[in-house]
């Protein structure tokens, strides 16, 4: 299969000792392309450097909500310049995070809305981080989605590593977003996530590792890698009662369409 990991922190130090080997192993597993989402300006530069080095690697640039404590509007021109790189395909990961107390909500809102405005200006989709902030995240996205250029209306972005309930999923899908599913779809206690996945149309599903985090069963407890994407594809295929190859084809087509790979 020709699969795409749409969310992998391949620039993190977890891969510094064997990055070439991990990438080769992932390609051997059928994962030919991946997207590295940045969490701040430094990681945006790191991700672009890796995209320049490796064929098949693309980048999203932006400021993660947990990195927004020092956010200022002066940062936006730097993100805009980074986004002009030929392998930058999205703004992200951006959003809200109420689980960690690393940035005041007011700062998170300011950074989120400023970067959504930039994505609209640049006509780039967004990669959304939402942790225990579903209502506020969706309210902001629903407002943003109402006033977009035609080029973005069919490719707004993805709610990455989706962890909301079915009602939140319906709101996101109604807006036009894709939903990204990660290793927890394989966990024993993830029944609600599986209900969401089952109710999500196959043409709106993306697969991600969020590596090095969220390792799927049977490798849970170890470092995650893009080579484990087929495990997630297989679990989603079983939920939709279709062949694994067919689900893989859907997720790849979805990623190509959303990010114009």
Walk me through this protein's architecture.
This protein is an alpha/beta fold. The chain has a single domain, classed as TIM Barrel (Alpha-Beta Barrel). It has 10 helices and 8 strands. It has helices at residues 19-28, 41-53, 75-82, 105-122, 134-145, 150-153, 166-175, 191-199, 229-240, 244-259; strands at 3-5, 31-37, 57-61, 88-97, 126-131, 157-159, 178-181, 205-207. The protein has an 8-stranded parallel sheet with strand order 1-2-3-4-5-6-7-8. α4 (105-122) links the parallel β4 (88-97) and β5 (126-131). α9 (229-240) crosses α10. The longest helix has 18 residues, at 105-122. The protein is globular, with a radius of gyration of 17 Å. The two termini are 17 Å apart.
Write the layout of secondary structure elements.
Elements: E1 3-5, H1 19-28, E2 31-37, H2 41-53, E3 57-61, H3 75-82, E4 88-97, H4 105-122, E5 126-131, H5 134-145, H6 150-153, E6 157-159, H7 166-175, E7 178-181, H8 191-199, E8 205-207, H9 229-240, H10 244-259
Parallel strand pairs: 1-2, 2-3, 3-4, 4-5, 5-6, 6-7, 7-8
Helix pairs in contact: 2-3, 5-7, 9-10
Sum this structure up briefly.
Helices cover 43% and strands 16% of the residues. The chain is an alpha/beta fold and 261 residues long.
Question: Assembly state here?
Answer: single chain
Strand order of the largest sheet: 1-2-3-4-5-6-7-8
How many separate domains make up the residues? 1
Summarize the amount of helix as a percent range.
Answer: 40-55%
How many beta strands in the DSSP annotation? Answer: 8
The CATH class assignment is Alpha Beta
User: Structural class of the helix and strand makeup?
Assistant: alpha/beta
The CATH fourth-level homologous superfamily: Metal-dependent hydrolases
- Output mean pLDDT: 97
Order of helices and strands: EHEHEHEHEHHEHEHEHH
Flag low-confidence runs: none
CATH architecture: Alpha-Beta Barrel
| CATH fold label | TIM Barrel
First and last CA, distance? 17 Å
Alpha plus pi helix count: 10
| Integer-rounded radius of gyration | 17 Å
Sheet with the most strands, sense and barrel status: 8 strands, parallel
Shape: globular
Fraction of residues in β-strands: 15-25%
């Amino acid at each position: 299969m020709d699969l795409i990991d749409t969310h992998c922190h391949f620039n993190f130090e977890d891969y510094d000792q064997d990055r070439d080997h991990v990438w080769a192993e992932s390609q051997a597993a059928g994962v030919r392309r991946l997207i590295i989402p940045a969490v701040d300006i430094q990681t945006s530069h790191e991700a672009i450097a890796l995209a320049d080095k490796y064929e098949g690697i693309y980048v999203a640039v932006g400021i993660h909500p947990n990195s927004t404590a020092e956010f200022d509007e002066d940062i936006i021109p730097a993100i805009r310049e980074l986004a002009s790189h030929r392998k930058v395909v999205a703004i992200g990961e951006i959003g809200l995070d109420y689980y960690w107390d690393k940035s005041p909500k007011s700062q998170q809102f300011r950074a989120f809305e400023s970067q959504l405005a930039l994505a609209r200006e640049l006509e780039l989709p967004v990669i959304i981080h939402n942790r225990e902030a579903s209502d506020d995240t969706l309210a902001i996205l629903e407002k943003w989605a109402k006033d977009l250029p035609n080029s973005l209306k069919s490719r707004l972005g993805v709610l990455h590593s989706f962890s909301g309930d079915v009602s939140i999923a319906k709101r996101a899908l109604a807006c036009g977003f894709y939903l990204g599913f990660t290793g927890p779809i394989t966990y024993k206690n993830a029944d609600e996530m599986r209900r969401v996945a089952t109710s999500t149309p196959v043409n709106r599903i993306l697969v991600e590792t969020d590596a090095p985090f969220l390792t799927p069963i049977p490798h849970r407890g170890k470092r995650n890698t893009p080579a484990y994407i087929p495990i997630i594809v297989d679990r989603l295929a079983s939920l939709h009662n279709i062949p694994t190859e067919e689900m893989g084809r859907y997720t790849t087509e979805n990623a190509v369409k959303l990010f114009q790979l």
